[in-house]
Amino acid sequence: MCISNIGTIELEGMQFFAFHGVLPEEREEGNLFIVDFKGKYDISAAMDSDELSDTLDYGKIHHIVASEMEIPSKLLEHVAGRIARRIEREFPKIISFSISVAKQNPPVEGKAEWARITVSGGREE
Questions:
Q1: How many domains does the chain have?
Q2: I want to staple 16 with a disulfide (CB 3.0 to 4.6 A). Which of 42, 69, 70, 103 is the partner?
Q3: Could you list the residue range(s) of the whole structural domain that residue 78 is in?
Q4: Which pLDDT tens digit goes with each residue over 47-101?
């Protein structure tokens, strides 16, 4: 039996009330946003050491997402791109990852519960 050294680390359902959107009322009233993270990382050192410093710290991931969500943007793509670039800078050993940013009740003609963008990054996409 061979255990893989590559693990998938996920942080789902991060909730933020933020002020992203093109329309003035979106930037004034705000909205609920949900952010999901999924990343592949070499976890072999962490499996042996049991030390946080040997893995991808999802507490730091949450901190990155939270700080970027505080900066208003017009587009979800802009928010997701900022988050992705910071993750790549902070975790250069990350193999691959995706970030999804979803806005509740987007302003469209008709019913839509969510609008979502997903951005991928890392060394292998």
A1: 1
A2: 69
A3: 6-122
A4: 999 999 999 999 999 999 999 999 999 999 999 999 999 999 999 999 999 999 9
